[in-house]
Write a structure and sequence with these properties.
Blueprint (H helix, E strand, L loop, with lengths): L4 H30 L3 H28 L19 H28 L3 H31 L3 H11 L14
Bound molecules: fe (ii) ion (2 copies).
Amino acid sequence: MKMKEEVRKAFSTQINREYYSAFLYLQMSDWLNQNNWPGCAHWMYVQYKEELAHAQGLFEYLQYRGVEVDIDKVDKPEKKEWENVLGVFEGALAHEQQITTWINEVVDIAAKAGDKAAVLFLDWYVVEQVEEEANQEVNIDNVKAGDGMSGILRRWDYHMGKRVFSGEDIPMPG
Ligand SMILES: [Fe+2]
Ligand SMILES: [Fe+2]
């Protein structure tokens, strides 16, 4: 079944959003480094790589289906002066919640077009969004649990620096 135009377009738009996510997390990683959270900066850099993989998964799926991809300009992430490390992770959670809404919209477009194969492929992304939101919630909880105590927060930052990019974080197109 040839992918319908509205599904193709929705996938293309989602590719752009995943690249935007990558840029946002790259900017956050830099902020964390600049503000002396090297472990968190590493964690966010791994997240940047995950977002690149999300975009690549969608791109490869469109190649697999034999339809054209519209590559669009990626917005510059606002260079925010995040107030503190908590503000960074709260920003990341808010962004992931937005991404979840958008992924669900792409699923709805594919379902409406009767493209069951695309819906099945997107299942991976739907499940992934649960993990992405949960990760940021855990980060927020850990900063709050540290309650401004620098010893605890330093240990937590060290632990954040141990995150490893895993192949399981890569969607399988076909
Ligand atoms: Fe993503
Ligand atoms: Fe993930």
